[in-house]
Predict the structure.
Amino acid sequence: MEELPDLSRLTHDQKDDLIRMLFPLIEQVRQLTARVEELEARLSKDSHNSSKPPSSDGLTKKTRSLRVASGAKPGGQFGRVGKTLKRTSEVDVVIEHPLPQHCQACGIPLMTVDARVDEHRQVFDIPVARYQVTEHRTRQLRCTCGQLHQSQFPENVTEVVQYGPNVRALAVHLSEGQLLPLGRSAQLITQLFALKVSPATVLAWIGEASAQLRPNVERIAQALIDVPVAHADESGLRVAAKLHWLHTVASETHTWYGVHAKRGMPAIAEHGILPKRIATLVHDCWGPYWQLDCEHALCNAHLLRELTFLHETTGQSWPKRMMALLTRAHTRCEAARQNDRTALSARQIRRIFTHYEAILLDAHTHNPHAVRHNKRRGRVKQTPAFNLLHRMREHAAEVLRFVTDLRVPFTNNLGERAIRMPKVKQKVSGCFRTLNGAQNFCTIRSYLDTMHKQGHNLFEVLRLTFMGQAPMPASG
């Protein structure tokens, strides 16, 4: 280690030069220290304290969740009424197990006709299936007067040889409903029913189903314009080797999907659902949503994860207190709903807002506004804690919308759940090779997810779709 110079031997000019050199170095150390802290904080982010998905956590990170243990043991709970298979009177096949012809003790022949049924045991199973071929024939007859009479084929029988609605519905359900790749969907049908189907044929059926269901999906979009509370979310989607964006709008009874090359307002405006809404929209505070002229509500699951991150990285106590306040408020709202109440009392709402503001005020004393230490232009970069506090104060009404309106849920879970299945489809298949394929998926998935929420059998509604009788989803 080099020895420090003897400063007493320096001239005044040399000392002045040394001081001038130190000031830039001090600023550089400050910037580098802030950069290191930022990078360390970025490395500490995972799915439990940020919006990163669990799949990004890696194999070495222990799974952590914001959920609190209920205290109940795994499995069936005490007092729960169990359910199992019950004997049925509608038996399809009866197998009689015969007695021996002679007595095993004395050898005398047994009168088996006098035997009585001792015990019943039933086995529930599915039959080994094979495809069925139905041949349609028309007839022709000429009257004695010379008039020729010709019978007609049904409207849905248009080819010399064709597939029926059942196998078409199954193929589309496997691919778009159960998210299997085209090849595996075709392979499964071949193995189950001994009916050879190609992936290209399944793809053609998907396009046919999409065309049939577009009017139904337009009705879904209209319903989501009118519902009192809707949820919105978006996520990246690989289409034709390029980044596109999957947009979704969802409610308790409806789901709509759309794909677009843009993420922001151009896509939202072109899809035409959110700009027409005036009721409440729950979202994750993404900038373009604030351009919509509607009531806004923020997802508190996102806030809880951000607060967890700040508590872990700063060691400050206010994030924990804010998390406790939001969680208690959520519990009170749930209790009010259980008691069929339409709103919290004015006193309860006032106390929640008062505690909310008090926590933010205390937090600002520990996280002041950063000021500039140099002569550079532009906005001064603030800490993550200050940015979150500023956002929570600016949008306090939207954060606590679930308190003032019990129709509004605590989180944007409906919107995020809607995004998951298309992401699973992308993970299984890699990407959508064409934009048309992605659009067909969005159309069919909008219909299937909506009909599932409304209690329909998805195979049956697809079967009816290929028969030209697709059920229309309920509007409310």
